[in-house]
């Protein structure tokens, strides 16, 4: 079985790789030093198992695991942590198991034997627990069968259209299948609703103008795009712009 090793400390990665080499039924599929890199490597190498540190700078292991759950064949997650208290988070995230550092060979073997692809209940639990824990640093989208990570700080707006939501960002746009309401609840401190179908990043507002045929629209910084503001949200948008 292919195993991906994820830890921001190189000695920790080297130790796990050494332990895995003593287990002939497993092979190291790759290594990653942070959550963003882990998701990308996992999408490229398709490991059956991921050994992943929980606390890492930038994207932590819990968020990375949530993004990996979007893969067509999600890997089993074995969290690795130096702190017993983080094990609670691991189980809340529906990990198959967790390992305390320093990892011992027999404990690693036992955890690997338990590893299996997560079932639907595990994936739903992972999504729910990490959503409650903290807002994501990245949005994950499937583009031509591959996973693409978009930093939330680069997103201009979310706009819903039936079952899909368009994510307009610095590098273009992608489609995701997440409810706009859930995105608002998760990122409400960074985005403002201007319409039942649109959330705009607070740092992208340039102004609001009245349209020739009535109504209002938002002007975005550095863009010629205009987004409609619904009547019920005009006052809130106006208050926000006055506070800038």
TrEMBL record:
PROSITE patterns: HTH_LYTTR (PS50930), RESPONSE_REGULATORY (PS50110). The modification 4-aspartylphosphate is found at residue 53. Pfam families: LytTR, Response_reg. Residues 2-116 form the Response regulatory domain. Keywords: DNA-binding, Phosphoprotein, Two-component regulatory system. Residues 139-243 form the HTH LytTR-type domain. GO terms for molecular function: phosphorelay response regulator activity; transcription cis-regulatory region binding. One of its GO terms (cellular component) is cytosol. GO terms for biological process: regulation of DNA-templated transcription. This is Two component transcriptional regulator, LytTR family. It comes from Ectothiorhodospira mobilis.
């Amino acid at each position: 079985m292919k195993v991906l090793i994820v830890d921001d400390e190189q000695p920790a990665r080297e130790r796990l790789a050494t332990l895995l080499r003593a287990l002939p039924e497993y092979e190291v599929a790759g290594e990653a030093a942070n959550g963003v890199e882990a998701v990308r490597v996992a999408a490229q190498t398709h490991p059956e198992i991921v050994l992943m540190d929980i606390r890492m700078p930038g994207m932590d292991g819990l968020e990375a695991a949530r993004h990996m759950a979007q893969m067509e064949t999600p890997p089993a997650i074995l969290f690795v942590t130096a702190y017993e208290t983080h094990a609670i988070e691991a189980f809340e995230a529906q990990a198959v198991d967790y390992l305390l550092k320093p990892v011992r060979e027999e404990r690693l073997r036992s955890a690997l034997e338990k590893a299996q692809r997560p079932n639907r209940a595990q994936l739903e639990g992972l999504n729910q627990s990490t959503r409650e824990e903290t807002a994501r640093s990245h949005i994950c989208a499937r583009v031509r069968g591959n996973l693409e990570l978009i930093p939330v700080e680069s997103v201009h707006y979310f706009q819903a259209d039936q079952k899909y939501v368009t994510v307009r960002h610095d590098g273009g746009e992608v489609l995701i299948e997440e409810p706009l309401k859930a995105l608002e609840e998760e990122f409400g401190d960074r985005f403002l609703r201007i319409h039942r179908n649109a959330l705009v990043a607070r740092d992208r507002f340039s102004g609001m103008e009245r349209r020739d045929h009535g109504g209002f629209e938002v002007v975005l910084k550095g863009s010629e795009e205009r987004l409609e503001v619904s009547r019920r949200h005009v006052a809130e948008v106006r208050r926000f712009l006055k506070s800038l």
